Amino acid sequence: MGGTTVHARVPQVAGFARWPHEGSAKQSGRALREQVPRAVFGRPETWTWQDRARRDSASGAVASAVAAVEESNAGRLQDLVPLRVGRMAASPFAFLRGSAGLMAADLADRPVTGIAAQICGDAHAANFGLYGDARGGLVMDINDFDETVRGPWEWDLLRLAASLVLAGREAGAAQDVCRAAAYDAVGAYRRTVRLLAKLPVHEAWNAIADEQLVAHADARDLAGTLDQVSAKARRNTSAKFAARSTEPIEGGARRFTDVPPVLRRIPDAEAAAVAGALDGYLDTVGEDRLPLLARYAVHDVAFRVVGTGSVGTRSYVVLLLDHLGEPLVLQVKEARASALLPYAAKAGFPAEPVEHEGRRVVLGQKRMQVVSDILLGWTDVDGLPFQVRQFRNRKGSVDPATLPPGLLDDYGRMTGALLARAHAHSADPRLLAGYCGKNEELDEAMAAFAVAYADRTEADHADLLAAIRAGRLPADFEGRPTAA
């Protein structure tokens, strides 16, 4: 039956595809290779970040990595800025983890394919991990979305590849091993979008269940490490955190204890403001979750320092107890504007006005994950936007900087496959597959980029250390020796 006959009976409905489907998304992807050859990612003439000292500030490029760190510290709690700087100074990989905006600035003036996806914005190798689903199972996926925007899919993949090189170097892996990990991550991404492009849409949307992922990504040697991480993640619960970080008080209630410098009690007025903001949070959670939350009482609020890039943002943990005294801990975390936003616009991906930064983070997360936290939401505290999620929801992760060299490429393949699956929710996998293609041209080019950008990051990290030694940037090393 032709398309005309079908639509004579059933009108075209906005938001749905037309029938018959017009054109070939895969052919459109292939055509993009003429405009942006895959080899261009590996061409040094497009790497304008190689010599920051010669960059023209009038072009909008960031000439100094130290200036970028200083700029990113604006608006943070200033007493925590030295802690953030100290964590970034720990290694070049740690520096990369705290400088998503700097890398976006570096990529904003190079060619892009124009294929838009919901991107993580900070898809480095340590931002993948395990977390619990509603039934107590473990899911593996990207797990950090503070910088998420709609932008060029390749930015996430380039960041992942470069981070694998830096993580491998930190672990003491040989240069060819580090490059192979980046190469394999891109190859796994490419093969995964090709697989998803061949599947019915519904199957592709829910593809790559955890039990199949290791086999699909050819990462079987990583299975033992994942088993260990899974066992630890199952114990990483609200109950365990509450047992270690709270104390009983009169009437059977509990309250947080001071565990400096990470966890600290806060004044009553601040605690009341955070607790009161949960009222607005309830308006953002699905109505089917409200009876669940209604069975918990709010007991206490504390301030908790988090992450590397997030240090200095306002972040709280809220203790809830049910009728048996069993805890549920929520994290209420400040949602700042994505550091990628101006650079994505410069690259040709202007964003819609952001209604609420917490909402941006939550919706971006839901658009990329197969399974998301059932208690995700957002609210405002004293006029600032926050995201809300479960804290210690059986979270676990592999630290790629501590992996044996023989497992780094397995980890690269696994994360590359996960990233491809996440992008395929918002970008047509047929379009991505058409561009990425069958051969290894993209793998080679992005691996060359990854090694060069890792070199650039090591130089940026050295500049950060020099700024610390010169007294330009204060740094708190949390008891670690000052980096030389």
In total, the number of domains comes to 1
Please tell me the overall pLDDT.
90
The profile of the biggest β sheet is: 6 strands, antiparallel
Lateral arrangement of strands in the main beta sheet: 7-8-9-10-12-11
Q: Report the C-alpha radius of gyration, rounded.
A: 23 Å
* Low-pLDDT residue spans: 1-5, 56-61
Question: Strand percentage, roughly?
Answer: 5-15%
The shape, in one word, is globular
Helix content: 40-55%
Topology, number of strands: 12
Protein name: DUF2252 domain-containing protein
InterPro entries: DUF2252
Organism: Actinacidiphila bryophytorum
Pfam families: DUF2252
Quick structural overview:
By secondary structure, this protein is α+β, with helices and mostly antiparallel strands. It has helices at 3-9, 25-35, 65-72, 81-88, 92-97, 100-107, 153-170, 175-198, 201-205, 210-216, 223-234, 238-245, 268-282, 290-293, 341-346, 357-368, 405-423, 429-436, 441-469; strands at residues 116-119, 128-132, 138-142, 149-152, 246-248, 254-256, 263-265, 297-304, 315-321, 327-334, 377-381, 384-390.
